[in-house]
Write a structure and sequence with these properties.
The structure holds 2 protein chains of 2 kinds.
Chain A lengths: L24 E2 L6 H11 L3 H16 L21 E2 L13 H10 L1 H8 L2 E6 L2 E7 L1 H5 L3 E4 H7 L1 H7 L10 H9 L4 E5 L9 E6 L6 E2 L2 E6 L4 E9 L7 E3 L2 E6 L4 E9 L4 E11 L4 E8 L4 E4 L2 E4 L5 E11 L3 E4 L2 E4 L5 E11 L3 E10 L7 E10 L5 E10 L5 E10 L2 H8 L5 H12 L1 H4 L4 H11 L10
Parallel strand pairs in A: 3-7, 6-9, 7-10, 8-11, 9-12, 10-13, 11-14, 12-14, 13-15, 14-16, 14-17, 15-18, 16-19, 17-20, 18-21, 19-22, 20-22, 21-23, 22-24, 23-25
Antiparallel strand pairs in A: 1-2, 3-4, 5-6
Helix pairs in contact in A: 1-2, 2-8, 6-7, 9-10
Chain B lengths: L2 E11 L2 E12 L3 E5 L6 H9 L4 E10 L2 E2 L5 H6 L2 E4 L6 E5 H10 L8 H14 L10 E2 L5 H15 L3 E5 L7 H14 L5 E5 L3 H6 L4 E6 L2 E6 L1 H10 L2 H5 L15 H12 L1
Classes of the chains: A alpha/beta, B alpha/beta.
Chain lengths: 468, 272
């Protein structure tokens, strides 16, 4: 396996604890039609979903491994566990969450965060959502915020209408895999004209070795509504790798606005291969705020399909690659209609031998007249061992639109370090300050609590010798 | 009383020797002016005292009350009481002035300064220096005019209260009013526990901040030391008379009369 070659490092003690195996059921290792049928049966799904899973499985098996990006040839799909049920029940009372799992989330600060500033929270452990709660006032407004299995069961019509419409199962190998074995994730429907002041949050946790997590999230923001959804991810470090292949589909209807904030801090043995895409209708706005700090390999390109006139897409993304990590991320903006606009701000950092790539696409189709896009990608390389590539693709298929593209690659300059150190800051403090300043365009978009947490995460090891 | 003692200091930039044996003794309570034509080593001396990695000390010593300054890292030098007000202050995007100033103040405090006290101190100093009141929230030196950058250096000096302030052309880029504000600020720091070394081309600064000691630095050496009368002589006669004393002088690079901000950028670019 890829990571057997490395002595997997971990510098993230806060999250790097593992708990005993609390699963009450898990499928055997490996993937087969039987396993897919079993998952569907356990969940008591309608027939159409089983068919969907089987069709996705077939597609997954047929599709070759993607070769255009990071080398994934070391992944061994037979070694993963595809479904793991940690608890019999999902609950809306924190006390009822099984003790071990509760401890895990307590350590991660989830219930505190919920009390402080969230409109609703959901916590997923391995394959299933174990805790779910929402403020009364949010419920009263008619907002549906459920784990996705309940969503399918309780709101089959809405579910079926939008599921698979933004990211079809055959979009790529990993969306197909997700289609076959998806479990857990969030289902959100916001009725027309509802604005939520506080964000809704989900938290995903992989706890077992060789456990693969395939959450599926479906968000529909109906006309004129406005929500902010926040997602966090962690896993402890094991010597064997795990896989996270989520699919996030978002539908932003006319005049609506959705912001999706995520900071993934997976341990450095997780393959994080996620497909995230939003379809934005007339005058709607989608904002991705996307932080990639953890994982062994990340391939993730939050996408906006600007399907109707006046639609707007934004993606603010940071990627930090340390030692063995390869973070290949960016964003895609597909303009299908006139007067659409998009902006991508990407800030990448590589250090201690990490590799960070920006890969992005801006496409103005024939009909996207008067479309405007702005792409800004900046990279900071902190030492000689670390690397970065920028792979932007800009396509204009009409004669009446604008794409601006700026890219910089830099090192922490000797003069900047000297300036800060001459005021008494140590080299580590000075470097940290420069790095924090560099990603400020991202961190200012985060809710305060997250910005603080992000700072903590990144403070980890600006060692005295790692720079210069 | 503290003493900063520089003995036979030789400094290279790359292969080239810039300082060729500097001896200088600075005691708290004194104000030193270092004059001399461009390109003869004035800025190099100040940067080398602060420890810029570009300047390699090949021999000699710098001590502060018998502590070996040369063995200290840049930040240690700052914490023992040295301060360099720079000719070209760096811009740090994304870092607010107030975050930076607070971190710098805390770097020398055992217990972090309380937010209330910090804001009060900062506001008072910003007002005294007649600076943009929004300054605390702007990014460190980013988009600052030349004059704002210099005042920001002085602001840092006032907040950090060094024993030895080294001010490198702190008056360039300042208009007359700003020059008064800055010199008032330097004068307000004068005490038995504060010393200042100023490098400048203009007599005007020295008129406003009267030095107790004046040195002429030519071709990497201090060729003459005296009192304020030296400033007046140089102001009236330039440096020609020094040549006549048989002292070799490095040719001054031609300076074009352009505005100082763009000049600053040009020169810092050239230095890289």
């Amino acid at each position: 396996m890829a990571i057997d070659k490395y002595d997997i490092p971990t510098n993230n003690e806060d999250f790097d604890f593992k708990d005993e195996d609390v699963s009450i059921f898990k499928t055997p290792k490996g993937l087969s039609e039987e396993i897919v049928r079993e998952i569907s049966q356990i969940k008591g799904e309608p027939e159409w979903m089983l068919e969907y899973r089987l069709k996705s499985l077939k597609c997954f098996l047929e599709k070759p491994m993607p070769t255009w990006g990071v080398d994934l040839s070391q992944m061994d799909f037979d070694e993963y566990t595809y479904y793991n049920r940690p608890s019999d029940n999902k609950t809306d009372k924190w006390e009822e969450v099984p003790e071990t799992i509760k401890n895990t989330f307590n350590k991660l600060g989830i219930p505190e965060a919920e009390q402080k500033f969230l409109a609703g929270a959901s916590a997923q452990y391995e394959s299933e959502v174990v805790y779910h709660n929402m403020l009364e006032e949010v419920k009263e407004k008619g907002v549906i915020f459920l784990d996705i299995d309940s969503g399918l069961r309780e709101y089959p019509e809405i579910f079926k209408k939008y599921f698979d419409t933004v990211i079809p199962y055959n979009d790529n190998k990993f969306s197909a895999l997700n289609g076959a074995v998806w479990s857990g994730g969030s289902f959100i429907y916001v009725p027309p004209g509802v604005k939520l002041e506080k964000p809704l949050q989900s938290y995903f946790r992989i706890n077992s070795e060789r456990m693969a997590q395939f959450e599926r999230t479906l968000i529909i923001v109906d006309k004129g509504s406005d929500i902010h959804y926040v997602e966090g991810c962690t896993a402890p470090s094991y010597s064997k790798d795990s896989l996270h292949a989520g699919v996030v589909e978002i539908v932003v209807l006319e005049g609506a606005k959705c912001r999706y904030t995520t900071i993934q801090n997976w341990s450095k043995n997780i393959y994080n291969l996620v497909t995230q895409r939003a379809k934005v209708y007339k005058n709607g706005a989608m904002e991705w705020v996307d932080g990639n700090i953890g994982s062994l390999v990340t391939m993730k390109y939050p996408t906006c399909v600007l399907a109707q006139e006046g639609a707007k897409g934004t993606c603010v993304t940071i990627a930090v690659a340390d030692d063995v990590q390869i973070i290949d991320s960016g964003s895609k903006m597909i303009h299908l209609a006139p007067h659409t606009s998009s902006q991508i701000i990407s800030k990448s950092i590589s250090r201690n031998g990490g590799k960070v790539n920006y890969r992005g696409l801006v496409r103005h189709n024939k009909k996207a007249i008067d479309a405007k896009s702005k792409v800004e990608c900046d990279t900071l390389i902190l030492d000689e061992k670390s690397t970065s590539d920028t792979v932007p693709t800009n396509m204009m298929l009409n004669n009446d639109s604008i794409i601006e593209h700026e890219a910089t690659v830099s090192k922490v300059s000797e003069d900047q370090l000297f300036y800060l150190m001459s005021r008494g800051l140590t080299k580590a403090q000075a470097t940290e300050m420069i790095v924090m300043g560099f990603i400020e365009p991202f961190s200012r978009e985060l809710p305060m609590e997250y910005a603080v947490e992000l700072n903590q995460l990144l403070k980890l090891d600006f060692g005295e010798d790692s720079i210069g | 009383m503290s003493t900063l003692m520089i003995k036979d200091l030789h400094v290279n930039v790359g292969e080239k020797e810039i300082l060729k044996g500097i001896d200088l003794e600075i005691k708290t309570g004194e104000i030193h002016a270092i004059m001399g034509p461009n390109g003869n080593g004035k800025s190099t001396l100040l940067s080398a005292i602060m420890g810029h990695p570009k300047y390699e000390v090949t021999s000699g010593s710098i001590t502060l009350n018998d502590q070996d300054v040369l063995s200290m890292s840049v930040d240690e030098r700052s914490r023992v009481g040295l301060f360099l007000g720079m000719q070209y202050p760096q811009e740090i995007p994304g870092v607010t002035n107030s975050d930076f100033l607070k971190a710098a103040m805390n770097a020398r405090l055992e217990k972090p300064i309380s937010l209330f006290k910090f804001i009060r101190t900062l506001d008072k100093n910003i007002e005294e220096l007649n600076m943009d009141e929004n300054l605390a929230h702007r990014y460190l030196n980013e988009g600052f005019s030349g004059g704002e950058k210099k005042r920001n250096e002085i602001l840092q000096m006032k907040l950090l209260k060094p024993q030895f302030a080294l001010l490198d052309e702190i008056d360039s880029g300042l208009d007359v009013d700003a020059l008064h504000v800055v010199s008032d600020a330097i004068n307000s720091m004068r005490s038995d526990d504060f010393a200042c070394v100023m490098v400048s081309h203009y007599e005007r600064l020295f008129e406003l901040v009267k030095p107790t000691h004046v040195h002429v630095l030519v071709n990497g050496k201090i060729v003459m030391s005296g009192g304020y009368e030296l400033v007046e002589k140089i102001d009236q006669e330039g440096y020609e008379w020094i040549k006549e004393l048989g002292i070799e002088m490095l040719e001054e690079e031609e300076k074009k009369p352009i505005i100082l901000e763009s000049c600053g950028k040009k020169e810092s670019f050239k230095n890289e």
